[in-house]
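Example (one chain per record):
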Amino acid sequence: MYRDKTCGELRLSDAGKHVTLSGWVQRTRKLGGMTFVALRDRYGITQVVFNQEKDGALFDAANALGREYVVQMTGIVAERESKNSNMPTGEIEIIADGIKVLNKSEVPPFTIEDDTDGGDDLRMKFRYLDLRRNCVKKNLELRHRMAFEIRRYLDSKGFLEIETPILVKSTPEGARDFVVPSRMNPGEFYALPQSPQLFKQLLMVSGYDRYFQIAKCFRDEDLRADRQPEFTQIDCEMSFVEQEDVIEMFEGLVKHIFKYVKNIDFTEPFQRMTWNDAMRLYGSDKPDLRFGMQFVELTDLVKGKGFSVMDNAELTVGICAPGCADYTRKQLDQLTDFVKRPQTGAKGLVWVKIEPDGSIKSTVGKFFSEDELKDWAKRMNANPGDLLLIMSGDKMKVRKQLCDLRLEMGERLGLRDKNVFAPLWVIDFPLFEWDEETQRYYAMHHPFTSPNPEDIPLLDSDTGNVRATAYDIVVNGTELGGGSIRIHDSKLQDKMFELLGFTPERAHEQFGFLMNAFKYGAPPHGGLALGFDRFVSILAGLDTIRDVIAFPKNNSGRDVMNESPSPIDDSQLEELNLTVTLPKEK
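Predicted structure:
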């Protein structure tokens, strides 16, 4: 054997034992006639001591070691004189009596330390080295532990883990599919699944009333911190359930994982909020409830005062930033620049300071009297020392813009503590969303989402106000997951396709196998999918899911380590009956 102990398990109780360790050289430290080698493996670091007086040849071999050399070392476990309380193995060291270099290493392009000197691009190019860092290792260990515990929990609730296909039929609604050409069926393509949605519904028709899968999913869409072209979700479906049953089941799972990982007990039910209230109060269907600053509408107070920005706006709305009246002009200009960024897209920002003595200062003082501005402050429950930040515009746009500003202020004021968790359910989503460009309705979730039974009579007469039996679980401003009760009635499903602009022929072409299955007794069913990568990253206190994925892609969807995507040989293209046409250069 190359080792009989790992570099993380030896303790003072092992003193006197002769052991064999193998691992990587983290660092060497020379002190007179002594050389100290920090030997690292997945389990930890152990200090190994080489004494020149005891064995000169062994001492010279230790001094010849470079960083990241793979070595085997033998020796006697001894108590350390200068103990290191920051290391689990910090009370012992190994008095070396043998060394064998198993493999040499080039000098790594960055230090294998938590506080490394390697930038993101460099670390992603050498991801196999980045994975040696302790902080990255902890993320993957957390992911592993959570996956096992999720499986244990769902198994205890009667769920079966069932795999569904990776090569599926393309259904180009929603995000773009990744497509795979079929060699055996020239001119035809598979798609990689955006989710196992259709198959898990088929499993309900098949009588498997509690299904789950920790499933790989694929979406060809623009990337951001919580998106990757391939990601993992905890995919679940249940039969003979209503919305309340699904929410109760998966709230239980989320609470269990919080207790398991963070030892946090959520004893009360998670807060619930309608989609309309979330948009009205926070400008987002995934509000961060770790702090206040709810939106307050001022439209009726600002109209007709000669300030055209507000006179012509559909909505004027603001937030109260507590204790920020001491913001300097430079800081206020920075906030204005922030909302004018392309990603936010606002034209400007109005601010009102409530000074400690109760007096008012504002950018719009020449349009509004002090008493009028005090009416704003009263409605917004502002106190002396607070700062009002106000925006005007089209309803949906200005709410989203103010949402960006609210989150920025929460960040600046230190109110978005990663060790505080504020989960909630957002319910009563609209069933449809209208697209001005194509002049048609799209499903806000997917075409199989059931309308709220109370709203079914409105499907033709008031389509845009039909609520879905859909629900999202949100934690700290991140959508952790979402789901819905599905349509199980064929006639209602046909109506849904009609409202979404599908001809019967097109609906059957894309979803015929599911529609046919429903003819043979589909039970009432519904489910939910939790973003597994997101769940791990939230509990690890990370800003991006990339750090909990072993081999992630960058923001261009590229793996810079293995240099994919990449061209393929002409012979492969010929075998697949494909011709590549590159876009013309602009």
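Caption: The CA atoms of residues 32 and 52 lie 9 Å apart.
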